[in-house]
Amino acid sequence: MNAREEAGKIYRSLTPHKTSNLIHVKGGPNRRRNVVGWLKFYGADSVTRVHIQGKWYYQFIKSRSMGGAISNPISSKTKRRAARVAGKLAYRIWTSVKKRGYAIPVPKRTPKIVKTYVRHILKANQINWKIKNPPDKTAARELELYLTNDGDLYRGQYLPILKNLILKVRKGTFRKHMAARLFMYLVDSAAKKYEWQFGTPGTWNVMFPRRTRLRVARSLVSSFLVEARHGNYNNLLPAKYRNFKAEAAAYKKASEWMKK
Fold first, then answer.
1. Which of 30, 68, 155, 199 would you call most buried, defined as having the most Cβ atoms within 10 angstroms of its Cβ?
2. What is the predicted pLDDT for the residue at 103?
3. Among residues 47, 50, 30, which one has the least CA distance to residue 39?
4. Of 14, 16, 53, 59, whose CA–CA distance to 36 is shortest?
5. What does the domain layout of the chain look like in residue ranges?
6. What is the pLDDT of residue 86?
7. 109-125 per-position pLDDT tens digit
8. How many whole angstroms separate alpha carbon 124 and alpha carbon 174?
9. For the chain, what is the largest distance between any 2 Cα atoms, rounded to a whole number of angstroms?
10. Is there a contact between 55 and 26 (Cβ–Cβ < 8 Å)?
11. How far is CA 173 from the centre of its chain?
C-alpha cells in the first residue's frame, strides 16, 4: 500500500469536525510526510503530531465534509497551483451531487493534471463520479446507418468528401483528425435531417449530442481507411492521378499516415 492509498484509507475513517484518535503511520520520515501531505490534500486541515515511546502518532481533523487542501509532497509550483484549482472544483462538484443529485460539468480545456487530482479527491470522499460522459453507442449506430443509406446525403456531401480525402491520400497530405472534422459537417446534416423526419423541431443536438456525432465521424473515417487500403476509391481520383506508375509505392508510403 503506497502513501496515497494509506492516506485515502485513513481519510475515509475520519468524522467531520471531530479530532481523530491517535494514528500510527508506518515507515520512515519521508513516507510519514507523504501520508500526511496526501491527507491534507484530501481535506484533513489540521494535523497534530505526538511522540510516544519512540513512535510518532498523528491526530487529524476533518473540518469540512468535503476536502481539497494542498499537500506537502507536491513539490512543483505548477502542481501545487493545479491542486488548489482541483480542490475548489472538487468541492463544487461534491456540493452539486449532494444538493441536485448530479455533477456539474467540468469547464472546457481543464488540464489533465487537474482532472487527475479531482478524481483523487472525489475517490477519497467516496463519490463515484466520471468526468467524461460517454457517447450513446446505439444512437451513433442508428445515425450512421441512416446517413449511409440516404441517397441525397450520399450524392450531396458524402461522395465529395470521399473524393477530397482520397486525393489527399494520394498527395500525402491526409490527416486523420482533419478527416473527422470534415465528416462532422456530413454528420450534422444527417442529424438535422433525421430530426426533421422523425423528431421534434429544434432537438437534433439533444437527440445526438456532440460526443455521439463525433463517434459517428470517427467511425466513418475508419471505414474510409479500410476501403482506401484496398483501392476501392481509386476510381474517384482525377485522371492525372489515376494512372500513376508508382501506385504500389504510393500506398506503401501512405501506410504511415494511416497509422496516425
1. 68
2. 67
3. 47
4. 59
5. 3-124, 137-258
6. 79
7. 778 778 887 877 777 76
8. 45
9. 89
10. no
11. 28
Q: How far is CA 176 from CA 86, 213, 257, in A?
A: 33, 16, 8
Residue 54 exposed, middle or buried by CB count within 10 Å (0-12, 13-18, 19+): exposed
Cα 64–Cα 70–Cα 127 angle in degrees, nearest 5: 50
Q: What local confidence, expressed as pLDDT, does residue 184 receive?
A: 94
- Name 19's bridge partners: 61
Neighbour count for residue 104 (Cβ, 10 Å): 12
This prediction has a pTM of 0.49
> In whole angstroms, what is the distance from residue 213 CA to residue 79 CA?
34
Can you give the pLDDT at residue 120? 77
C-alpha cell at 97: 451531487
The one-character DSSP state at 59 is E
pLDDT band at 191 (very low <50, low <70, confident <90, very high): very high
- Amino acid identity of 27? G
